[in-house]
Amino acid sequence: MSPPAGQSDHEEEEADGLRKVIHVDMDAFFASVEQRDDPSLRGKPVAVGGSSGRGVVAAASYEARGFGVRSAMPSVRALRLCPDLIFRKPRFDVYTAVSRQIRAIFLEYTPHVEPLSLDEAYLDVTADLKGIGSATRIAEEIRRRIKAETGLTASAGVSYNKFLAKLASDQNKPDGLCVIRPGEGAAFVAGLPVRRFHGVGPRGAEKMARLGIETGADLAAKDLAFLRANFGSFAEYLFRAARGVDLRQVRANRPRKSVGGERTFFEDIKEPEALRETMDHIVDVVWERIERAGTRGRTVTLKLRYADFKTLTRARSLPHYVADKAEFAAIGHALLEDLMPLPQPIRLMGLTLSALEHGESEERPAKDGQLSLL
């Protein structure tokens, strides 16, 4: 488990006073674009990604999700779950163009837009440019405009901080709106299963269940000392989240520090071949992100999280920029091979490219929708 992107263990920026925050999240964005542009795909299970033996699902339509197909899933497994699954190759130029359309709509309401990926963003509308005054009305208007101008649906969450707004946007998906008003955050969080908290994956939820923590209310009942003893640096985030507290600002034009991705497994793995195959999948997805970002970097970092939640990182820096996907993959595999045999199974693997050439806005696919490896 790890804190949300943009919030490190040692860095926190406090927002001034009560804010009006909207989290807009496009519904099955890549797959929905494919269904929009090809009417024959509408109502059918669609996956964006490679269908070959080593392919990975980058995004899945809601029809495919009904069969259990999820992003970052190996394509062969997705086809076993849904034999009628239709694969489409990613068209990042199209997705990027649509994302720019949507971002232009956001910027008509506020300059405080923090993109997280091509398909989701936070907006601080405390002082909106149109003088509307109501974050709920702004969210409704934005959703209407996205539908009218792109033919796609978006879900939105409205609240007074980023954590609650993100929870709210997922509450009534797809094509939904949820509002958590001042004073309602703690009660809303109390009734949620902890697996809904950003950063708590399936294995994290299992560990919490073993500790008697099933809901936000259960988590709020635990003191900080208990959380630190069991979750280390993640404890402070969990303590605040259980109370609906989030002090992070909405930050526009965040400098990109790295491009990467990670994958959390439903079952811990240790076998060398399974580890190498997972590395191949992660390389495929992360290199696509690197190319889409148009950036280069010198440092490759491998991240492993063991079954006991201890995290290990290993990095290799080059005197030159990583030349291509083959070199990126070779470094990732070399870092992994240096650690084998592993002392215990792992529940998460991640790979990141840093020491970047450009300072661009960070795009973080960090959810179960588009290119997420979490």
Task: Walk me through the structure.
There is one protein chain. The chain has 374 residues and is of the alpha+beta class. Helices cover 35% and strands 20% of the residues. The chain contains 13 helices and 12 strands. It has helices spanning 29-37, 62-65, 75-81, 92-107, 135-150, 162-169, 185-190, 202-210, 216-220, 224-231, 235-241, 272-293, 325-339, and strands at residues 21-26, 46-49, 57-60, 86-88, 113-117, 120-124, 154-159, 177-179, 258-269, 297-306, 311-317, 346-356. The strands form 3 sheets. It has a 5-stranded mixed beta sheet with strand order 5-6-1-7-8. Strands 9-12-10-11 form a 4-stranded antiparallel beta sheet. It has a 3-stranded mixed beta sheet with strand order 3-2-4. The longest helix has 22 residues, at 272-293. The chain is globular and about 60 Å long. It starts with 20 loop residues before the first strand and ends in an 18-residue tail after the last strand.
Helix content: 25-40%
Task: Give, in spatial order, the strands making up the sheet with the most strands.
Answer: 5-6-1-7-8
Biggest β-sheet, characterized?
5 strands, mixed
Radius of gyration, taken over Cα atoms and rounded to an integer in Å = 20 Å
Shape: globular
- What is the SS-derived class? alpha+beta
Q: What series of H and E elements makes up the topology?
A: EHEEHHEHEEHEHEHHHHHEHEEHE
Strand content: 15-25%
Number of helices: 13
Oligomer category: single chain
Distance between the termini: 10 Å
Please report the total strand number as a whole number: 12
How much is the average pLDDT? 87
